[in-house]
Amino acid sequence: MPAAPALSAPQKALLKMGLARDIDLALHLPLRYEDETRIVKLRDAREGESVQIEATVTACEIAYRPRRQLVVTVDDGSDTCVLRFFNFYPSQQKALAVGSRIRLRGELKGGFLGWQMAHPTFRPAGGDLPTALTPIYPTVATLPQAYLRKAVLGGLARADLSDTFPPGVTQALRPHLWDLREALAFLHQPAPDVSLATLEDRTHPAWQRLKAEELLAQQLSQLESKRERAALRAPALPAKPDGLHEQLLAALPFQLTAAQRRVGDEIARDLARSVPMHRLLQGDVGSGKTIVAAIAAAVAIDAGWQCALMAPTEILAEQHFRKLIGWLEPLLAPRGLRVAWLTGSQKKKERAEMLALIANGEAALVVGTHAVIQEQVQFKRLALAVIDEQHRFGVAQRLALRAKMTHDEQEPHLLMMSATPIPRTLAMSYYADLDVSTIDELPPGRTPVVTKLIADARRDEVIERIRSQLAQGRQVYWVCPLIEESEALDLTNATATHESLGAALPGVMVGLLHSRMPVPEKRAVMQLFTSGQMGVLVSTTVIEVGVDVPNASLMVIEHAERFGLSQLHQLRGRVGRGAAASACILLFSAGDSGRLGETARSRLKAMAQTSDGFEIARRDLEIRGPGEFLGARQSGAPLLRFADLATDGELLSWAREMAPMMLDRHPQLAERHAGRWFGGKSDYLKA
Question: Any idea where the Helicase C-terminal domain is (predicted)?
Answer without folding.
Answer: 458-622
